[in-house]
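Q: I'm building a small set of examples for a reading group on sequence design. Run inverse folding on the following structure and report the sequence directly after it, with nothing in between.
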């Protein structure tokens, strides 16, 4: 791997190269909030305002990841990495908010689909950016193999977190606030055959989706550094 190049990314974790990405991210957030405002004006109803909170939770791991990108000490980094992993499932969790979609809502169905899709894609994007930063940090501090190991482990763990959030109604902070109750619920569901099948399906489903989405993200980022083949001049 050439010096100064990590994870095939053209952008350092700090500096001007990240500003276009952050500006695009800000535009995406404004788009989501604008759609929510339009729906409120059309229906005078605040049905989907919970999406704002869910999107905020999806942004938390990006904050941890940006902080991690500027840390050199491994012990401090390990703490930030744990915090990132704790909140990372909130990014793909927003995809499950489609469960609230109803053809009998006050707004046109197509508009609610647009609204939910916008929030879901913005949340997933937040998650992919944070995963990319974590991948870079681990690769720099350890090795490319360890970096990809963290990626491939984090995705199914996030899928399991999606299950706990959607079906168990647990929150990220319950790991610290109610760890005994959370652990008891996890054990109960894993030891119940019907629940265990659903746990495995949701974990693998959303974990696989994250792996595929991140691979597309990574290949696109790495592709920016690939040199185009030279074309011989015309005679």
């Amino acid at each position: 791997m050439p010096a100064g190049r990590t994870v095939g990314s053209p952008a350092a974790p700090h500096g001007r190269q990240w500003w276009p990405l952050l500006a695009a991210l800000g535009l995406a957030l404004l788009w989501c909030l604008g759609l929510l405002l339009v729906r409120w004006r059309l229906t005078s109803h605040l049905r989907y305002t919970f999406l704002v909170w869910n999107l905020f939770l999806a942004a938390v791991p990006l904050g941890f990841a940006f902080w991690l990108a500027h840390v050199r000490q491994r012990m401090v980094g390990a703490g930030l990495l744990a915090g990132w992993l704790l909140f990372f499932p909130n990014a793909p969790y927003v995809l499950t908010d489609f469960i609230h979609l109803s053809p009998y809502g006050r707004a046109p169905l197509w508009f609610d689909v647009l609204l939910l899709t916008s929030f879901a894609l913005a949340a997933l994007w937040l998650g992919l950016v944070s995963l990319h930063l974590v991948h870079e940090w681990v690769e720099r501090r350890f090795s490319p193999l360890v970096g990809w190991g963290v990626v491939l482990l984090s995705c199914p763990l996030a899928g399991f977190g999606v299950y706990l959030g959607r079906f168990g109604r647990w929150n990220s902070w319950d790991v610290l606030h109610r760890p005994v109750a959370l652990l008891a619920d996890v054990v109960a569901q894993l030891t119940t055959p019907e629940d265990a099948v659903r746990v495995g399906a949701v974990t693998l489903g959303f974990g696989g989706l994250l792996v595929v989405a991140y691979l597309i993200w990574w290949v696109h980022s790495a592709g920016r550094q690939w040199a185009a083949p030279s074309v011989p001049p015309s005679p």
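Confidence is low (pLDDT under 50) at residues 1-16, 225-235.
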